[in-house]
Design brief:
The protein has 189 residues and is mostly helical. The chain folds into two domains: 81 residues, Rna Polymerase Sigma Factor, Chain: A (Orthogonal Bundle); 77 residues, Winged helix-like DNA-binding domain superfamily/Winged helix DNA-binding domain (Arc Repressor Mutant, subunit A). The protein has seven helices and no strands. α1 packs antiparallel against α2, α2 packs across α3 and α3 packs antiparallel against α4. The radius of gyration is 25 Å and the shape is elongated. It starts with 13 loop residues before the first helix and ends in a 5-residue tail after the last helix.
């Protein structure tokens, strides 16, 4: 019998699998909080969480890469909770389903906002990298180091007014650079 040259049989490599599991574990508190808000019963919440983990593990072992682990887990938790409510014959399942849909919409809105801020942050970093060293030094002193403008002026042997003017111009230039960067890169907006 010839050994299989690909022992994973289509499964993702160990590094990708490890990353998926690390992402799941990092999101665990949020997933558990979400489940708790759905089911409002500690024992049931733990059962739902364990079932979500089993389903997640099964999917990743098949080699599927979950692009957004927290969103996938929230959706799985909602399905598991609904299955549990239906098995128990709960009258309240419809109200709980509506609440779960509203909570999921809030998470989706938050995910979109995080993507927007991530794109803005990346654009700002790019624009900061384009600044001349002296300008970048001013921005670093003021915003990273938190130095007061008067202290920066003293250190650079400049008037407070000239430092204020330079900072104002830098902020305007950075804002314009970020705006252009976001407008020219559809992946960022």
């Amino acid at each position: 019998m010839t050994p299989d040259p690909n022992p994973n049989n289509g499964a993702m490599d160990d590094d990708a699998l490890d990353q998926q599991v690390r992402t799941f574990l990092a999101a665990r508190p949020l997933i558990q909080a979400h489940i708790g808000s759905l089911v409002r019963d500690a024992a049931l919440a733990e059962d739902v969480f364990q079932e979500v983990w089993i389903r997640f593990e099964r999917v990743t072992r098949r080699g599927e890469i979950v692009a957004n682990v927290p969103a996938w887990c929230r959706a799985a938790a909602r399905l598991v909770a609904l299955e549990s409510w239906r098995r128990q014959g709960r009258e309240q399942a419809t109200e709980d389903e509506e609440l779960a849909a509203l909570v999921e919409q809030a998470y989706e809105d938050q995910d979109v906002q995080a993507e927007i801020w991530g794109a803005r942050s990346a654009a700002l970093k790019h624009c900061l990298d384009l600044l001349p060293d002296r300008s970048r030094d001013l921005v670093t002193r003021r915003y990273r180091d938190g130095q007061p403008l008067a202290e920066i002026a003293d250190q650079l042997s400049q008037s407070l007014g000239s430092v204020k003017t330079a900072m104002c111009r830098l902020r305007l230039a950075l804002a314009e650079c970020v705006r252009k960067r976001l407008a020219s890169n559809p992946a960022c907006s």
